[in-house]
């Protein structure tokens, strides 16, 4: 498959909501290791004569044409019981909250996904919740726009040209280029208004510790059946994990711009109990010094104008 260099000029800064599902950790771990063991298909492209990998990467950064060096996309014929999507850059690990599962950590300079729908990848690549990826054919969408899984699920593994240099933002740019090249994706942005919540600092002040580390994870269940949301990131990433749990859009209005080390722990009374907005606000205030305020919120959506079934490896 020949990839042409294309300029990926759009940057869409938004927040992300994704869906969750209780899955088997061991099964996900086994499936992830098997997938990581298989080498992705190299992209055949002409390379400039001479020059180190570092120089080539820097040139592409300056030209805004970053692409993966190798990409493997495989359709899963059976609906998977597990899901996960993550990228590992020089500045940390970023995981999409597409399921409560084993915390996948790809090798440095790679993005890896299993059991994911294409709207999951689009939301992850553009930094928005999958529920705010609008339009597109049924095969590309997640179940019910907010439920785990997709009508067609994929395994995706990608590798940067110089894995030791690629940052998380650069890997996201490469994912967008992959979607354009392999899926012929065309999108545009729209801002819409919806009832939801803003997350704010409570009157007693924030209870979080700033950190220089970056680690973004989705919701997961521990061995005691508690729901855990934890990470080391900007608070808009916390919002991405929290919003699908309360089934409402949430925006970050804390005014806190740094990276924070946070952990939110919720113990449901029964297996079928859902996290309510009131319970979430109490947890945030008790454990983090934050609170939820109901209001109408602006939602930045990505609208799919065109997409195709991916080309073969």
Q: What is the H/E order?
A: HHEEEEHEEHEEEEEHEEHE
Helix content: 10-25%
Total number of domains: 2
Give the overall silhouette.
Answer: globular
Q: Extract low-pLDDT stretches.
A: 1-50, 144-148
Q: Cα-atom Rg, whole angstroms? A: 19 Å
* Strand tally: 14
The mean pLDDT is 77
How many DSSP H or I helices?
Answer: 6
Oligomeric state = single chain
The computed structural class is alpha+beta
User: Terminal Cα separation, in Å?
Assistant: 7 Å
Q: What percent strand?
A: 25-35%
Biggest sheet statistics: 10 strands, mixed
What's this, in brief?
It contains six helices and 14 strands. With 313 residues, the protein is of the alpha+beta class.
Features:
single chain; alpha+beta; 10-stranded mixed β-sheet; 4-stranded mixed β-sheet; 6 helices; 23% helix; globular
Please tell me about this protein's structure.
The chain is α+β, with helices and mostly antiparallel strands. The chain folds into two domains: 25-191, no CATH class; 192-299, no CATH class. It is built from six helices and 14 strands. The protein has helices at residues 25-37, 53-63, 118-126, 168-183, 235-246, 277-288, and strands spanning 68-76, 84-89, 92-95, 110-116, 133-134, 153-160, 186-201, 209-210, 215-216, 220-221, 227-233, 250-252, 260-266, 290-306. The strands form two sheets. Strands 1, 2, 3, 4, 6, 8, 9, 10, 11 and 13 form a ten-stranded mixed sheet that branches. A four-stranded mixed sheet has the order 5-14-7-12. The termini are close together.
């Amino acid at each position: 498959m020949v990839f042409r260099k294309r300029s990926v000029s759009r940057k869409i800064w938004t927040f992300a909501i994704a869906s969750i599902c209780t899955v088997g950790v061991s099964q996900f771990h086994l499936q992830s290791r098997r997938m990581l063991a298989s080498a992705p298909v190299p992209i055949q492209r002409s390379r400039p004569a001479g020059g180190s990998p570092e120089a080539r990467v820097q040139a592409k950064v300056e030209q805004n044409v970053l692409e993966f060096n190798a990409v493997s996309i495989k359709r899963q014929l059976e609906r998977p019981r597990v899901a996960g999507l993550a990228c590992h850059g020089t500045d940390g690990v970023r995981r999409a909250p597409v399921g409560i599962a084993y915390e996948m950590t790809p090798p440095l300079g790679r993005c890896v996904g299993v059991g994911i729908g294409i709207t999951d990848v689009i939301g992850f690549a553009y930094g928005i919740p999958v529920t705010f990826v609008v339009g597109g054919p049924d095969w590309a969408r997640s179940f019910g726009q907010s439920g785990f899984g997709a009508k067609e699920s994929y395994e995706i593994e990608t590798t940067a040209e110089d894995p030791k240099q690629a940052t998380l933002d650069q890997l996201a740019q490469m994912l967008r280029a992959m979607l354009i090249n392999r899926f012929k994706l065309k999108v545009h942005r729209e801002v819409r208004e919806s009832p939801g919540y803003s997350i704010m600092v409570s009157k007693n002040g924030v209870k979080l510790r700033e950190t220089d580390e970056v680690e973004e994870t989705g919701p997961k269940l521990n061995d005691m059946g508690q729901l855990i949301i934890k990470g080391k990131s900007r608070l808009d990433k916390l919002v991405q994990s929290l919003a699908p749990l309360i089934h409402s859009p949430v925006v970050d209005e804390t005014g806190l711009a740094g990276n924070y080390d946070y952990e939110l722990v919720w113990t449901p009374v029964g297996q079928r109990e859902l996290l309510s907005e009131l319970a979430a606000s109490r947890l945030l205030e008790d454990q983090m010094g934050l609170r939820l305020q109901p209001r109408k919120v602006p939602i930045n959506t990505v609208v799919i104008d065109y997409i195709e079934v991916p080309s073969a490896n």
